[in-house]
């Protein structure tokens, strides 16, 4: 099997090199033989988060994620005062002014049956009570992202069915920014993003949420303006000197990278953080990626306070490579923070990230999530040329299994408009997603970790345990987990989450054959 996978990846790489000029010509390998996730049935199944947080008085938007044949109708029993449900779309909206916890029973019905599920709504100080799930533009389109590409991904998230499995956020990364202006003297969209208000409106009309990007630097990584300026009135030296293109991106004729860093990536005394936060709230943005290095506490707190001063629940995500010593401040002031530099679609890079997250376990929980970076599956490329991920199918199972065990934010990095069946199967396995979205919010910890294999365990809210068996070698390997090492002394059922099948009952040990660079993800209950 390993040779077959390598051969398929080699063919895909050759095709990508030949056809990479246009995204529609990129060769997508047929990995259908490696699909493990069963197809959803026709009967309703309610998926996604089992707990949702909002602040008192803020705008509330929660879409019930449910798979099954359409048409489907929805109901909700026990909604707090101020919220209403659209029975056709499953969208719950409104404002709740009284803090507290509310147990709501959700129901989805179609011609094949009915499904019920409890949702705990928590109105209080914390949001992002489960890791955010969505899409980010960077690993696909890079700095060349456009408004139409963002809308294409939003529409595809719904039409593909991903939204029925809990995927919610559509996040614009670096590359949307024009110059400062408008009534608030805030960052405006460039020519690629002509109408930010219309963009958020259309994304919300799909039942999804929109994210945006900025930096406390004067210029961002992709050389657009940040939330600080060179002058008290919001001017930028390189723009005044004409060192920009039509999209207000810094340009230097010599292409000297060090000169670019010197003229763009720096801090200044002139903050427009409040201006920008107010503008994003006026646009009805739902998520902010705030990106610079090192993530200093002063600038973290400043943006936190500016976002909290608005009446929107904007998820606050820091990037990149946050230092562990700042963990107490990160937990207090951020909803998510990147624990690493940028991920790439190769085993060496991704495995170094994936198997070095355990140090963040004590700092993980509802409302504060260490972020291992985006999912490099499907068609990626960092703009504008795309290629199919260089990770083998087994490596992609390891990728998704680790991120789910870690309770890392799940942000898809590929072109959703060209989602192949294998990638969809990775992203639509509700039992795997349930591990990531478990309300207890525990980060998995290793009980075995060496250069050949790893065994990670994660306690779940219902008392069961998720266990990941990972093979780091290039040969198939038997990996064993003993029930007593997990604290189980009576017979338990072992379930394969990727195949959604119960395997056996035992009180002794379980051994799985794990493919090269592959994973087996179990639930023991």
Task: Tell me about this structure.
This protein has 525 residues and is of the alpha/beta class. The strands form nine sheets. An eight-stranded parallel beta sheet has the order 20-19-18-17-14-11-10-23. Helix 7 crosses helix 8. The radius of gyration is 23 Å and the shape is globular. The two termini are 31 Å apart. Residues 1-21 have low confidence and may be disordered.
| CA radius of gyration | 23 Å
Strand order of the largest sheet: 20-19-18-17-14-11-10-23
Total helices: the number is 13
Distance between the termini: 31 Å
Mean pLDDT rating: 94
Which regions have little confidence, pLDDT < 50, spanning 5+ residues? Answer: 1-21
Q: Name the overall outline.
A: globular
Q: In total, how many beta strands?
A: 31
| Share of β-strand residues | 25-35%
Give the % helix.
10-25%
Describe the largest sheet.
8 strands, parallel
Structural class: alpha/beta
